[in-house]
Specification:
Strand content of chain A: 25-35%
Number of helices of chain A: 10
CATH class of the largest domain in chain A: Alpha Beta
Structural class of chain A: alpha/beta
Number of strands of chain A: 14
CATH topology of the largest domain in chain A: Rossmann fold
Helix content of chain B: over 70%
Distance between the termini of chain B: 29 Å
Number of strands of chain B: 0
Shape of chain A: elongated
Number of domains of chain A: 2
Order of helices and strands of chain A: EEEHEEHEHHHEHEHEEHEEEHEH
Largest interface: A-B, 29 and 21 residues
Largest sheet of chain A: 6 strands, mixed
Oligomer: heterodimer
Strand order of the largest sheet of chain A: 6-7-8-3-9-10
Helix content of chain A: 25-40%
Distance between the termini of chain A: 34 Å
Structural class of chain B: mainly alpha
CATH superfamily of the largest domain in chain A: P-loop containing nucleotide triphosphate hydrolases
């Protein structure tokens, strides 16, 4: 069953394109990643799911119901963490969380305590005195406190230190095990790879590809940087190599294919240094646009 | 109910300040009356030198001279309407726009609650706050009139009639504020918007009385509930008061409708 169905979603802000013809289905129980650079249309798509903005055309269905017509009903089971978090500054953390909990017809106090303990969040501080990372924690607790069936997280990890990030990932994985479906947006590929089952890639407001994360990792391009004297870039031109660049004693290219063949070619040269990296998100996008 | 409680709590400080200073201003002004009454002749000769247009600018008229208690009260209440208008428009501009300006809209609107309910709860919280200030002004007016009246007999029915206009006066300004806030993309500064509306309408109404211009009087709620008219005639000036009722009945439902359709801005 699909928890989220986005059909031909298009949103224009006046003449400015937010997103165009976005089609995404998120299945029950999966952790779905949504990646793209800043301004690609991630937040536009996500904010349409919550009917914070209304689509120019297309439709959004959540739990089988229209997300606009049944908005308030659908939102009972959604936990949302916005990318930019702002709360009523003068409130104490606990008061904000209690206010948030007051919108749901269940007792959330136990869950609030649990979550803030895990995230090491001080409940008695005023929100305006919190650092960005700590505000993010408030956002996370606020999004999870009612044990929602669908978690929508818009760039949740920005501002968290690596340790917290790991705790947060564990938390999400745990919620997922309990049955929550997760939509997770990010501009950092490695995050998405760590957590998600499937991923949609968006650029300039349009979905470029939807893939299995495992497949993405397996077929993915690797970026090779080879340094040494007497390198001949023509020798590297085998199937699966693209964007070869030669500069002084350095050759760079992307490669996707049989790694053994590449190793053979490389070993025929005398190298001073070699680097094999995951391409950055931008570099992956360049491939999708070739 | 939770939104109402929350919003009302957020307005606490504001209610305290307005509820203290507006009645205080009224009491302070009115407490000068015994000196004026003691020196009526001197004032009369000064006033005789001013042209009628000047006097009507300040809401004075020949039928209700300034040196009578109710004349002085009418003038004072006309002044007190300015802060009341500013407060009401302030809440109007503030109550919905604050969520977008301070970017808390993503928090509130992603909760399982309809926008209609949010708007109604917020408006009720603002209305409750305005009513508290309204009642404080009402009570302060009656008390200070009682204190300064001396031996004069005062027509308290007419005074109450004047005071009863406050609720409509406030709602008209509140409604205009809310409507403008959902029409514009962003209310950058609530204070300047509400000062402009509160003072602007006062000036419009003053020009209305100088020029005896129907148009100016139609536009400004100050003219719809002129205290002087009510104190002289013992009734609302219905042909104008009805316009304020229409403003209330149009602005609030229209805002409700527009807010449903609004795209909530984010960073």
């Amino acid at each position: 069953m699909n928890v989220i169905e986005i059909k031909n979603l298009t949103k224009y802000y006046g003449d400015v394109k937010g997103c165009k013809n976005v089609n995404i289905n998120v299945k029950q129980g999966e952790i779905f990643g949504f990646i793209g650079p800043n301004g690609a249309g991630k937040s536009t798509t996500i904010r349409s799911l919550l009917s914070l903005i209304y689509p120019t055309s297309g439709s959004v269905t959540i739990f089988g119901k229209d997300a606009i017509e049944f908005g308030s009903e659908v939102r009972k089971e959604i936990g949302y963490l916005p990318s930019e978090i702002f709360y009523y500054d003068k409130m104490k953390v606990i008061d904000l969380l209690n206010y948030s909990a007051s919108f749901y017809e269940k007792d959330c106090s136990q869950k609030i305590r649990e979550l803030s303990e895990i995230m090491e969040l001080d409940l008695n501080r005023k929100i305006q005195d919190l650092s960005y990372g700590n505000k993010k924690k408030v956002g996370i607790v606020q999004g999870l406190l009612h044990s929602p069936k669908l978690l929508i997280l818009d760039e949740p990890t920005s501002g968290l230190d690596p340790l917290m990030q790991q705790k947060f990932f564990n938390l999400i994985a745990e919620e997922n095990k309990q049955g929550a479906t997760v939509l997770f947006s990010s501009h950092i590929l490695s995050e998405v790879q760590q957590l998600c089952n499937r991923v949609a890639i968006i650029k300039d407001g349009e979905i470029v590809s939807i893939q299995d994360v495992k497949a993405l990792q397996n077929d993915n391009y690797k970026k090779f940087t080879i340094r040494g004297t007497g390198l001949d870039s023509n020798k590297f031109k085998i199937d699966g190599v693209s964007q070869i660049k030669e500069k002084d004693d350095e050759v760079t290219f992307f490669f996707k294919g049989n790694i053994n063949e590449m190793v053979k070619i490389i070993s025929s040269f005398k190298l001073s240094d070699m680097l094999v990296e995951e391409p950055t998100l931008e570099e992956i996008f360049m491939h999708y646009y070739e | 109910m939770n939104i109402f409680k929350f919003e009302f709590k957020m307005l606490r400080k504001s209610i305290f300040i307005w509820g203290l200073f507006v009645p205080f201003g009224l009491v302070l002004y009115m407490s000068f009356y015994p000196w004026i009454a003691a020196d009526t002749e001197a004032f009369e000769s000064i006033m005789a030198n001013f042209p009628d247009e000047f006097l009507s600018f300040f809401g004075m008229s020949a039928e209700l001279p300034l040196f009578s208690l109710l004349g002085y009260f009418g003038l004072t209440f006309g002044m007190i309407q300015i802060p009341l208008a500013i407060q009401a428009s302030n809440y109007g501009f503030h109550i919905l726009s604050v969520e977008e300006r301070e970017l808390t809209a993503d928090f509130l609107l992603s909760k399982p609650v309809t926008r209609g309910k949010i708007l109604i709860s917020k408006c009720l919280a603002a209305f409750a706050s305005l009513t508290i200030v309204n009642l404080l002004v009402w009570v302060a007016s009656l008390i200070i009139l009682f204190i300064v009246k001396g031996d004069e007999t005062v027509n308290f029915t007419n005074v109450n009639l004047v005071l009863s206009t406050t609720v409509f006066f406030q709602l008209a300004f509140f409604g205009m504020g809310v409507l403008i806030s959902v029409l514009v993309k962003k209310v950058t500064s609530v204070l300047s918007f509400s000062m402009a509306l509160g003072f602007g309408m006062y000036i419009v109404s003053s020009f209305g009385s100088i020029l005896s211009s129907k148009l100016f009087n139609i536009i400004s709620p100050y003219s719809h509930f002129s205290p002087t008219y009510i104190l002289i005639n013992g009734k609302y000036e219905w042909s104008l008061a009805i316009i304020s009722f229409i403003i209330i009945l149009v602005t609030l439902p229209l805002s409700y409708f527009l807010y449903q359709k609004r795209n909530i801005a984010s960073l």
